[in-house]
């Protein structure tokens, strides 16, 4: 679990604000959810035979003896909240949420025990238009941020009926190569053979490569849905490749699944993953409601932005205010409040804790501000203030206090 320090938090905030603005502009609204839910919610929605439920959840009994879990992902909570608040009755919802998720994983670069997701969910839409919209929206995000080293993979998992037939074919295939399966996979063969395809074990890759693919078992409806999605992506000029091995880690997916992957982050290449989960609402006790969403890992998003040479807008002060002498700081405090009122967005840092002129100038320099404002006793009595450029060869100048806001407004724009 990481501390997110000031030197990187500016990039986080910038990227979070960009993705927030984009999804809001497509008509998605924020929903804020608790970090804790009943354990059963995740067991039922994510599925018992998954990495998350088998070995990654932070689960504990509360004082009342109820089993609670720190959320490992957001979709289950969104659906639970939709149901408990009556948001899904004869209504469609386009929602987003963001925040920390918790998984007891082996920590490594790009994989942490507390990590952060930005999550988008559309409930009540049968698609494939909404599938396309969700993908197009993420493509806009990469474009807007100059993120180029990313690729879209899509697949279809069909519906439960077609998946049952596929499952039989898989079981038959894996039984035939049983001697090559690892322990996890042998166990899953009886319980959930699809999950074998999601194995991260490099020694299993060849066996997985040669397995039958779901796309050959798709039902008519899912075929049409998938064709519809591809046509819409083509029309929107969003490039993709079809990855028949893409099954995604959770049980609840149906039809469309997709993943944005990058080669820029080593083995943790999945940046944004999503899919359709038409059966989940009903499984959790609601009325049948088609639904789809994606989740982006913010840590990987930030790392990818950096790897693509992205830079967040500067977060530092525009001006640093130095005061020397009797009564100058008192006057300066009033002055900077006027500045904050009249120069939109100006970032002003007041020198705090006194200090010699020299040490204040050192702090001014360290603050990365463009200008130091210097108010000494002489300036105070003349009704003027010094503006000293800190990052250019411009001359220092002195302006009347009543002209300060206008002068700075010009200089900073
Ligand atoms: P992976 O295959 O890397 O384990 P996943 O399939 O478990 O990913 P999802 O549950 O789909 O991931 O979560 C969506 C996104 O959240 C991922 O694409 C990734 O960017 C991010 N993510 C998942 N687990 C972690 C983690 N432990 N640390 C950081 N980011 C993560
Ligand atoms: Mg995982």
Quick tags:
binds adenosine-5'-triphosphate, five-stranded mixed beta sheet, 16 strands, eight-stranded mixed beta sheet, 21% strand, BirA Bifunctional Protein, domain 2, alpha+beta, Rossmann fold, binds magnesium ion, 3 domains, 413 residues
Kindly provide the name of the CATH class of the largest domain: Alpha Beta
Strand order within the widest beta sheet? 1-5-6-11-10-9-7-8
Q: Can you tell me the CATH topology of the largest domain? A: BirA Bifunctional Protein, domain 2
- Shape from CA axes? elongated
Largest sheet geometry: 8 strands, mixed
Helix and strand arrangement:
Blueprint: H1 6-25, E1 29-30, E2 36-38, H2 39-46, H3 51-56, E3 58-61, E4 67-70, H4 75-84, E5 93-102, E6 114-123, H5 129-145, E7 151-156, H6 160-176, H7 183-191, H8 205-209, H9 220-235, E8 241-242, E9 254-261, E10 270-276, H10 280-283, E11 291-297, H11 298-307, E12 319-324, H12 328-342, E13 348-350, H13 357-366, E14 371-376, H14 377-382, E15 384-389, E16 397-400, H15 404-412
Parallel strand pairs: 1-5, 7-8, 12-13, 12-14
Antiparallel strand pairs: 2-4, 3-4, 5-6, 6-11, 7-9, 9-10, 10-11, 14-15, 15-16
Helix pairs in contact: 1-5, 5-9
The site of magnesium ion (MG) has 2 residues, from loops.
């Amino acid at each position: 679990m990481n501390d997110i320090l000031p030197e990187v938090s500016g990039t986080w905030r910038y990227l979070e604000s960009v993705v927030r603005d984009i999804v809001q502009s497509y008509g998605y609204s924020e929903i804020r959810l608790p970090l804790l839910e009943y354990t059963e919610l995740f067991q039922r929605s994510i599925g018992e035979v998954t990495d998350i439920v088998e070995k990654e959840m932070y689960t504990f009994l509360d004082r009342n003896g109820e089993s609670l879990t720190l959320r490992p992902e957001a979709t289950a909570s969104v659906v639970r909240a939709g149901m408990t608040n009556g948001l899904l009755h004869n209504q469609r919802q386009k929602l987003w949420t963001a925040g920390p998720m918790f998984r007891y994983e082996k920590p490594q670069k790009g994989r942490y025990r507390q990590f952060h997701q930005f999550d988008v969910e559309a409930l009540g839409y049968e698609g494939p238009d909404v599938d396309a919209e969700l993908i197009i929206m993420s493509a806009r995000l990469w474009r807007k941020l100059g993120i180029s080293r990313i690729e879209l993979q899509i697949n279809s998992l069909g519906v439960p009926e077609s998946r049952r037939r596929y499952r039989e074919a898989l079981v038959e295939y894996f039984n035939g190569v049983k001697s090559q399966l690892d322990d996890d996979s042998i166990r899953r063969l009886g319980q959930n053979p699809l999950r074998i395809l999601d194995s991260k074990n490099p020694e299993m890759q060849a066996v997985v490569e040669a397995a039958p693919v779901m796309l050959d078992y798709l039902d008519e409806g899912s075929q049409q849905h998938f064709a519809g999605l591809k046509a819409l992506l083509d029309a929107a000029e969003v490039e993709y490749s079809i990855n028949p091995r893409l099954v995604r880690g959770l049980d609840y997916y149906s039809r469309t699944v997709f993943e944005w992957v990058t080669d820029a982050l080593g083995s943790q290449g999945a940046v944004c993953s999503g899919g359709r989960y038409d059966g989940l609402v009903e499984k959790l006790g609601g009325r049948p409601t088609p639904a789809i969403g994606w989740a982006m890992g913010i840590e990987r998003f930030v790392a990818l932005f950096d790897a693509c040479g992205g830079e967040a807008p500067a977060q530092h002060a525009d001006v640093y205010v130095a005061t020397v002498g009797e009564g100058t700081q008192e006057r300066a405090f009033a002055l900077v409040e006027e500045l904050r009122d009249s120069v939109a967005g100006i970032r002003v840092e007041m020198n705090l804790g006194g200090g010699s002129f020299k040490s204040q100038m050192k702090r001014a320099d360290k603050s990365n501000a463009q200008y130091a404002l210097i108010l000494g006793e002489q300036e105070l009595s003349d009704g003027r203030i010094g503006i000293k450029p800190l990052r250019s060869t411009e001359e220092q100048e002195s302006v009347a206090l009543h002209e300060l806001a206008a002068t700075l407004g010009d200089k900073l724009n």
